[in-house]
Amino acid sequence: GQNIDQPTEMTATEGAIVQINCTYQTSGFNGLFWYQQHAGEAPTFLSYNVLDGLEEKGRFSSFLSRSKGYSYLLLKELQMKDSASYLCAVVDSNYQLIWGAGTKLIIKP
Amino acid sequence: DAMVIQNPRYQVTQFGKPVTLSCSQTLNHNVMYWYQQKSSQAPKLLFHYYDKDFNNEADTPDNFQSRRPNTSFCFLDIRSPGLGDAAMYLCATSRGQGTYNEQFFGPGTRLTVL
Fold it and tell me: How many helices (H) and strands (E) does chain B have?
């Protein structure tokens, strides 16, 4: 079967750095997305990785290792508005998006 | 601004009473998706259209139907809602399907079944 694993919940402090991990086992791989979802709202796109390495975009960075089936999302200089769920999603060999259940990130002052 | 619009944002229906959710897009994207998302769970793909080609997920209940009359609009019909169908329903679009095709989401419709 296809599986995406993320921690259910994480807590971090305002101004700090947090890393949210995602491991995947899918039938094929055609890229990995990270989405942010605030409570009661739709997911919004954060990043896309298809090659190994780090992609940096402002305070957010995303890393991919295809050989390990592993990605992480790194959030720097955390702000209260970063409190949200972060969903990892992998494009499989059929170009279907396989979603993780998301990691709820709680930011404390 | 180009966007994905869903109406209504909140829908209340009674057990067994049919309901229709709508989605429209101004992005001129070829692919439209319907997802069901329950609290703290991953979005679950119900079906998608590539242009007029309809693709139903194997585990989508027959109670759920969809129509795409044109490029811009897509509808989700729930013929006989049960209590277990209470969820957020998300519509999304993408330009195509392939290695990099970001999905753009509408704000969702939260369905309550009484």
Answer: 0, 11
